[in-house]
Amino acid sequence: MVLTIAAAIFVFGLLVLVHELGHFATAKWTGMRVDEFAIGFGPRLFSVKKGETVYSIRAVPLGGFNDIAGMDPANNDAGSRGYCEKPVLHRMIVILAGSIMNFILPIFLFFGIFYFAGVSTPNPEPVFGQVMAGKPAAEAGLQTGDRVVSLNGESIASWQEFVTATSKLEADTPAVITVERGGEQVETTVTPSYDKGSKRTVIGVMSEVKTMHPGFFASMGMAVQHTGQIIYMMLDALYKLILELSGAELAGPIGVAQMAGQVAQLGIVPLLNFTAFLSLNLGIVNLFPIPALDGGHFAGLCVEAVRGKPLGEKSMYYLQVAGITLLVLLMLLATKNDLVRVFTGG
After folding, report:
1. Which of 124, 193, 246, 316 is at a distance of 20 to 30 A from 24, taking alpha carbons?
2. Integer Cα distance of 109 and 107 in angstroms
3. Could you tell me the CATH superfamily of domain 122-211?
4. Which of 146, 143, 164 is nearest to 155 (CA)?
């Protein structure tokens, strides 16, 4: 529980800090007055004022905000330094900066992982990197480092061939496996079992993993490429999700906190990977053209740029109500999914 809370605070805190820092830095850069930069919601736990801005940490670490003067034109007391008085381009930059920072953060996280921890790739050779205790392979006497020669008389030359041959095995039906160990061939019988989680026949082994340590510039290039690949995969998955009109995989703060705790148990590298994935997810979702999200604000600014004036107060009011209603419904669905997972172990 303590690890889950700590991991959740780390993940949410870092994502919110980076996102809000994007809004804050660009607001300052374009000459806007920022009255408060806050991490979290609710009562202030800590605050300090430097210059015209109050920097605060609040009780609920599930978000954050920048109090930029003039966001509401009717209550602009900052004159030309108010948000509403700035050119449309400047306001667009400030609105998009949060999500842009969420796209930049993973590049640095992946760079750190690649440069300091290295890049692990499966060995294409049919060599056992891990034999799991209590699984069929371990019970058959197979060991880490064994090289598969054949399975049920079928010659094995690569790990992929071994995976293909294993997939043909039937659960609870003995299979003859020959491995090379210490220069000698050892033959034994292994009885596969059916794994409900992966829905396939397994014997309980993992491939050998090789780790390479790329240089500084190679790590940066790989980080940019990896980030781009994940964004493409996320957009593709999102497209399919919208087509299916399914919210079964939707997770809220409870679900994300639970996942953060589970990932943290595996170590700092998996936690940083998880943070990077979540940051990209946040960046993409926040650009949805839904009022109350940055994407909705940006869409409104695009309309203003075309019309030459902002939408009327009534139109903005109804759009914001619709947007907030949709977000509340999505949050309720995500919370329902979280609670189902918590109480069913799903």
Report:
1. 316
2. 6
3. PDZ domain (2.30.42.10)
4. 164
> Nearest CA to 10 among 251, 230, 276?
276
> What gap in Å lies between CA 88 and CA 92, rounded to an integer?
6
Judge residue 84's burial from the number of C-beta atoms within 10 Å of its C-beta, 0-12 exposed, 13-18 middle, 19 or more buried. Answer: middle
212, 115 contact by CB (below 8 A): no
Q: CA 102, CA 270: separation in Å to the nearest integer?
A: 18
Instruction: Locate 80 and state its tokens.
Output: 């030309």
Give residue-wise pLDDT tens across range 79-132.
999 999 999 999 999 999 999 999 999 999 999 999 999 998 888 999 999 899
Q: What is the pLDDT of residues 45-66, one digit of tens each?
A: 999 999 999 999 998 877 899 9
Q: Rounded CA gap, 297 and 82, in Å?
A: 16
Q: How far apart are CA 104 and CA 120, in angstroms?
A: 23
Which two tokens mark 173? Answer: 């039906």
Length of the chain measured in residues: 346
Q: Residue 343 corresponds to which amino acid?
A: F
Per the CB < 8 A criterion, the answer to whether 271 and 264 are in contact is yes
The 3-state DSSP class for residue 145 equals coil
| Tokens 């943290």 -> residue | 264
What stretches of the chain show up as alpha helix (H) in DSSP?
Answer: 2-29, 88-112, 136-139, 159-167, 216-244, 253-264, 268-285, 294-307, 313-344
Do residues 195 and 205 touch, judged by C-beta distance below 8 A? Answer: no
Do 321 and 314 form a contact (C-beta atoms < 8 A)?
no
Of the listed 20, 52, 154, 304, which one is catalytic?
20
304 labelled catalytic: no
Residue intervals of the chain classified under CATH 2.30.42.10 are 122-211
User: How many CB atoms within 10 Å of residue 278?
Assistant: 21
Axis-axis angle for helices 268-285, 88-112 (nearest 10): 160
Q: 3-state class of 146 per DSSP? A: coil
